[in-house]
Amino acid sequence: MAEQLTPEQRAREQREQAADGVQRRRRAMDEAQASAPGQGKGLDTDKVAEIRRDLAAGGDAEVEKRHGKAAATSAEARKAKTQRNAVRKHESRLREQAAGEDRGEQDKKAAEQNGRPPAGSRLSPQEARERVAQGGKDLQRVQKALDGRQQVRAAGIAL
C-alpha cells in the first residue's frame, strides 16, 4: 500500500532526491573533467584528482604539505582549482535555488496560518463576498469604538 505523504514530507523527499542526484552528477562531472581530452594536454589526471581532493580537505596548505611547493603552482594544481571552483559555483546555485523554494513554502504556510490565501492565488467569489462582509463588520466595530471615545472626551473624561 502506498504511503500517504504530507506536502512537506513530499517536498523534503524531493529535495533529498535532488541532492543525491547532484552528488552523482558532481562525481560524474569531476571524473569527466579529469579525463576529458583537450583539458590540459599532458596533465596527469590522477595527480589533478589527488590535488583536488587535497584542496577540498585543507586548501593550498594541504597541497603544499603533500606534494611540495612546486606542485601548488603547477598546471595540475591550476586545473584542480578550476574544477573545484566550478563545483563550488554549481553547489552555490543549487543552494540558492533550494532556499528560494523553501521561502516559497514558508510564505504559503504563513499565509494559511494567517487565514489568507497564498500570494498569487485567487479567491472564489463566495470567499471574496465573505471577506468584504467581514471587513464591513470590522469597520463598524472600529467606528463604534471611536464614537465611544469621542463621547468620553466630549464629556471631559480623559482615557
How much of the polypeptide forms β-strand, as a percent range?
under 5%
Terminus-to-terminus distance: 65 Å
H/E series: HHHHH
| Global geometry | elongated
How many DSSP H or I helices?
Answer: 5
Mean pLDDT level: 80
In short:
The chain is built from 5 helices and no strands. It has 159 residues and is an all-alpha fold.
Q: Would you mind describing this structure in some detail?
A:
This protein folds into two domains: 8-121, no CATH class; 123-159. Helix content is 79%, strand content 0%. It is built from five helices and no strands. The mean pLDDT is 80.
Secondary structure layout:
Layout: H1 7-35, H2 45-67, H3 69-72, H4 75-113, H5 125-154
Helix pairs in contact: 1-2, 1-4, 2-4
Key words describing this protein structure:
single chain, mainly alpha, 79% helix, 2 domains, 159 residues, elongated, 5 helices
